[in-house]
Input
Amino acid sequence: MNFKKHTAFMIDFISDFVNGEIERYFFDLDYSAYVIEHFPHMELENSRFADKFAYTVDRAYERGTDLGLSDEEFRVEISNALNKWLDK
Output
């Protein structure tokens, strides 16, 4: 699937975290700001895919943060959510 600019940015950012290229601390610092910046544009690019992001990745982020998951458990949760978002 070919993604437009803002959706591709979020996929790359989240993939970098899942692949261990970004530490959780830095992921946490950037995640909310990137969602605020890119999500409205993602909705314009593909509203159904943006909604799916909200119900997969964003929900996993909120859940993992609320539960205080360890860094590795959190990375697994985000990885599973990313796969579900991308239908992998």
